[in-house]
Specification:
Blueprint: E1 6-9, H1 24-36, E2 41-43, E3 48-55, E4 58-65, H2 72-83, E5 90-96, E6 104-108, H3 116-125, E7 131-136, H4 146-150, H5 156-178, H6 181-190
Parallel strand pairs: 1-4, 1-5, 5-7
Antiparallel strand pairs: 2-3, 3-4, 6-7
């Protein structure tokens, strides 16, 4: 597998959405920035904040889109085009309703599963072949409750569980970036 050249954290911008379940991808990106001592800078041409750091000896770009979730693809596609990064060299971290808080899973490709951020990225990249780091946030129980649920802050227990999953995910990022997806999955999925 090719090495990862771009890691994207999905969420909604602005203080109203800080700490909400839908921003779990932002939480992961913030943790990456802290661990690798990177800095994100706003770049209007990319509609997001972009950073660069060395992970597992590889030069890697980080992206936090400033668009709303359903337009995340605008930002991702702009960075991918400018730096000539193919979809298979992109890792997208996002919230996942189908996983419980405290669970994180890695996968390559697949559909959007109703996730509007993924839907837009797939449409704008013209490919489903990017990696996904799925951060479990749990499900409210009925699909009619999903929109309100993802835009709310999780309970203290759920928040702590999500943070633990992000910490475990951070530990496998070097393997993912280096292109050792099998090792990363074995390690993350065994937890």
């Amino acid at each position: 597998m090719a090495s990862v050249q771009l890691i994207v954290g999905l969420g909604n911008p602005g203080p109203r959405y800080d700490g909400t379940r839908h921003n779990a991808g932002f939480w992961l990106l913030d943790a990456l920035v802290a661990r690798y001592h990177c800095e994100l800078r706003p770049e209007s041409r990319f509609k997001g904040a972009v950073g660069r750091c060395i992970i597992a000896g590889q030069d890697c770009r980080l992206l936090r889109p400033d668009t709303f979730m359903n337009r995340s693809g605008e930002s991702v596609a702009a960075v991918a085009r400018f730096y000539r990064i193919p979809p298979e060299a992109i890792l997208v971290a996002h919230d996942e309703l189908d996983l419980d808080p405290g669970v994180a899973r890695l996968k390559r490709g697949g559909g959007h599963g109703g996730h509007n951020g993924l839907r837009d990225i797939i449409a704008r990249l013209g490919s489903k072949d990017f990696l996904r780091l799925r951060i479990g946030i749990g499900h409210p129980g009925h699909r009619d409750q999903v929109v309100d649920y993802v835009l709310q802050r999780p309970s203290a227990d759920d928040r702590a569980a999500i943070r633990r999953a992000i910490d475990r995910a951070l530990d496998i990022v070097p393997d993912v970036v280096a292109g050792d997806l099998e090792r990363a999955m074995n390690s993350l999925h065994a937890a």
